[in-house]
Amino acid sequence: YPVDRAAGDENNSMELIQQYLENYYNLGKDVKPFVRRRDSGPVVEKIREMQKFLGLEVTGKVDSDTLAMMRRPRCGVPDVGD
Amino acid sequence: FTTFPGMPKWRKTHLTYRIMNYTPDLPRDAVDSAIEKALNVWKEVTPLTFSRTDEGEADIKISFAVRDHGDFNPFDGPGNVLGHAYPPGPGIYGDAHFDDDEQWTRDTSGTNLFLVAAHELGHSLGLFHSANPSALMYPVYNVLTDLARFHLSQDDVNGIQSLYGGPPSDSSSDPVVPTESVPPEPGTPAACDPTLSFDAISTLRGEILFFKDRHFWRKSLRTLEPGFYLISSFWPSLPSGLDAAYEETSKDIVFIFKGNQFWAMRGTEVQAGYPKGIHTLGFPPTVRKIDAAVFDKEKKKTYFFVGDKYWRYDEKRQSMEPGFPKQIAEDFPGVDSKVDAAFEAFGFYYFFNGSSQLEFDPNAKKVTHVLKSNSWLNC
Q1: What is the pLDDT of residues B118-152, one digit of tens each?
Q2: Tell me, what's the ipTM?
Q3: Residue of chain B nearest A73, judged by CA positions
Q4: CA distances from B186 to B183, B189, B216 (A)
């Protein structure tokens, strides 16, 4: 059970990250969230953009603070212009 | 702060709003009050004014909805997205939508409607999101906001004033409200006299007016130094030595009392049909004058203080409430003396007697600070 739950959490988090960046940071819907290269790729760039905008430490990685921020209630208007 | 791409903004300063429906979470008057308060947040720092309409088209239409609600931006159930709004423009533009899967509350036990509405209406006026975490326009809901002392951050003020400029009273070219202070002359009251008392105090469009004899100080919370003016320079037909004053913020009217008469003013314009007798408000003939008055924006009720008693007037029903007068000290513990003047700010009532001032928390029902009367004048 713990293994399955952990896998489920990870999937949920990935889905959350993808949706968050799509909704509020104009990440293209066709961009895959699993980026193998460590410091590049549209998702990492968008995570950086999001962290910078929201005043988080800019790491390009979804650390616990970034994930916690993504889970907080917020306004539905995107943070960046289209 | 940022504005929307293309910097859309309203090309007029008077806007209409309409509350299209209500959340079942709150009484209607609580929704009305939250929206009005949220609009006032922006009104106080801009030339914008708002009036409510209950039918037909409005610049800003406010609605509660769940999931798909006809704008291709469906809500997402409880949590995460609380609301969204559209930048200025025709049709859906300017409208604000609130996710009714949230638990809307007056306080912060659920999602505070005023706080979210103030943010969304910022979008309705043309502000995009701010990256400043202390700004109202920061995109993430801040449950720790102190509602009693809520104020816009400087970033929000800079943002909205980049679109609309400051309030008319900030402008020396304002044709309605004079802004030039009069120089003090012999016999005029001194702001920092430790024995200074006030005749009457009222808010006016986000400022505070402290009346004394023929003059008044005008204190804006945005500027350090209060202005000092002759009452007659604003309102030539008013007498000096006023008894009481209060602002009915939802009507943009200041009521001023002297003896058995009272006047209604919108800005510098005395309203038609005034002065009227105070007994038309429902006072008994034994009441010859009012000592002080304060308007409760939330409840839309005005407290009138006479001697050691007070009356409560329902501004919606336009009638004095039954069961009054009551002893002031009974319902305002700690306010034991006659009240010279009173006003409301940041959710507190401030009661003045002679050179003393009491800050009273109406929720906790207790005096929270004892101050000198002239503390608002930077003394």
Answers
A1: 999 999 999 999 999 999 999 999 988 778 778 88
A2: 0.85
A3: B80
A4: 10, 9, 16
